[in-house]
Design goal:
Layout (H helix, E strand, L loop, with lengths): L1 H4 L11 H16 L6 H15 L23 H7 L3 H7 L12 E4 L4 E6 L12 E6 L1 E2 L12 E5 L2 E4 L16 H4 L7 H7 L7 E3 L13 E2 L1 E6 L5 E9 L3 E10 L3 E10 L5 E8 L7 E3 L2 E4 L8 E5 L5 E2 L3 E2 L9 E5 L2 E4 L1 E10 L1 E10 L3 E3 L5 E2 L5 E8 L2 E8 L7 E7 L5
Antiparallel strand pairs: 1-2, 2-3, 3-5, 4-8, 5-6, 7-13, 9-10, 10-11, 11-12, 12-22, 13-21, 14-15, 15-16, 16-22, 17-21, 18-21, 19-20, 23-25, 24-25, 25-26, 26-27
Length: 420
């Protein structure tokens, strides 16, 4: 039963870090009570706890992917030592007062279907709350607690949550078998619960205003492909899924902690059908988002520099900003706990009437920023690309290659020149 619940890498298969926590609590209670003496099971339990430690945000809340509330995990040192057995878990729940993080900054759960970057702040490495944190979900093991959130991710940096997941809201109203909602993969009918499960409520692509299929869809397990960290400290995570029967969707997150993040998406409809595609982003409720031509600026209280959001490729059209929209297509809401929705900003970049295309959106902590949209480009297959921008720290160039076989290559240079 334990191995049906958890993958070999210690990840719970129900797409929810909070369910991971709950099931592990039960298992550990059994072990602590002396009801389990099998060494293999006890060692597996330790692996499960170590995996869970990667899902605690720098602000000490659990990552609320899927049906997870934004639960505070903080504990005083003595309580943390009693409750948790691994140094990593003790560290993250005590805000670094006890325990120790693993030396690695990058964890890929290849079977469970998650990839996580967690890097201490260079200026304050012992202050856990200032860590850079990026986590992507690329898991579909069953319909259980599965939102229509394929390849979504969350991001925290410089002491603030930046991009968030929709949350759970609650299990309200039973969907009637054969109803439109039931056929679309919903088990519950409350409009707020319906919203948090939608594709548009997550940081991913949406095709033709439709949700990713869950009911009747064959689970792919893990959609993780390749990942790497280059010599300049840039991390990259590649994922790929097939949507709506004919659409290939590849995503590469390219991340330099505490500096910038590029969200690159490539898609292609094998049937040649034209699609309207949106690349969605959802911001932490404490953040304000201001429009700036086709781009956006986000003041972040914990950062001297604001966060600037720009498209790196031609053709990406910015949407309006959404905040607490409770119309037929709800948007701009975040659920921290049971039966609670909080307004938060959401926006997207769009491509219309296309069968194939790419998005590349840059999030950069910068006082000033200029993107070189004439120089930046990707090829038709999405296998090669180059991006360039400038800010007060000089000129930045990212070049990537992700061949059909072999390793993915990410090259990054930063030259202190004020002109292209």
């Amino acid at each position: 039963m334990l191995h049906s619940q958890f993958a070999k890498d210690g990840i719970h298969r129900e797409h929810s870090p909070d369910y991971h926590r709950m099931v592990y609590d039960t298992l550990k209670s059994m072990i602590d009570a002396g009801l389990v003496s099998d060494i293999e099971t006890i060692e597996f339990a330790k692996r499960i706890e170590e995996a869970l430690s990667w899902f605690v945000l720098p602000d000490q809340h659990i990552v609320n992917f899927g049906d997870s509330d934004y639960r505070l995990m903080s504990r005083k040192p003595a309580e943390a030592e009693r409750k948790w057995q691994t140094p990593a878990m003790q560290y993250v729940v005590s805000n670094g007062k006890i325990g120790k993080l693993p030396e690695k900054n990058f964890q890929v759960f290849s079977e469970g279907g998650y990839a996580i970057v967690r890097k201490p702040n260079e200026l304050d490495p012992n202050i856990f709350q200032k860590s850079s944190y990026l986590a992507q979900i690329a898991a579909f093991h069953s319909r259980t607690h599965k939102h229509a959130d394929d390849l979504s991710f969350i991001w925290s940096d410089r002491g603030s949550n930046i991009l968030v997941d929709a949350g759970r809201y609650g299990y309200l109203g039973k969907a009637e078998q054969g109803s439109e909602l039931w056929l679309d993969g919903y088990w519950y009918t409350d409009p707020k619960r319906v919203y948090v499960e939608t594709t548009r409520a997550h940081n991913t692509l949406e095709f033709d205003n439709q949700n990713y299929k869950r009911k009747g869809a064959k689970p792919y397990g893990s959609a993780l492909k390749r990942s790497c960290e280059n010599e300049n400290g840039v991390f990259a995570i590649e994922t790929e899924v097939k949507q709506h029967g004919s659409i290939r969707h590849s995503r590469v997150l390219i991340y330099l902690p505490a500096k910038w993040l590029i969200v690159y998406d490539w898609f292609h409809d094998n049937n040649g059908e034209s699609r309207d595609v949106k690349q969605w982003f959802h911001f932490a409720p404490e953040l304000s988002v201001l429009p700036l031509d086709n781009d956006f600026i986000v003041p972040v209280v914990s950062s001297i520099q604001p966060l600037r959001i720009v498209s790196l490729l031609k053709g990406q059209k910015a949407s309006k900003m959404f905040l607490a929209d409770d119309g037929a297509n709800m948007q701009g809401w975040w659920s921290p706990k049971e039966r609670e929705l909080v307004p938060n900003y959401a926006l997207n970049y769009q491509l219309s009437n296309v069968s194939s295309g790419s998005f590349a959106t840059l999030f950069s902590f910068s006082n000033e920023l200029k993107n070189d949209i004439e120089w930046s480009k990707v090829n038709a297959s999405g296998r090669k690309g180059q991006f360039r921008w400038r800010n007060e720290n000089g000129r930045h160039i990212v070049v990537f290659e992700r061949p059909a076989e072999g390793p993915m290559i990410i090259k990054y240079t930063n030259k202190n020149k004020l002109v292209f």
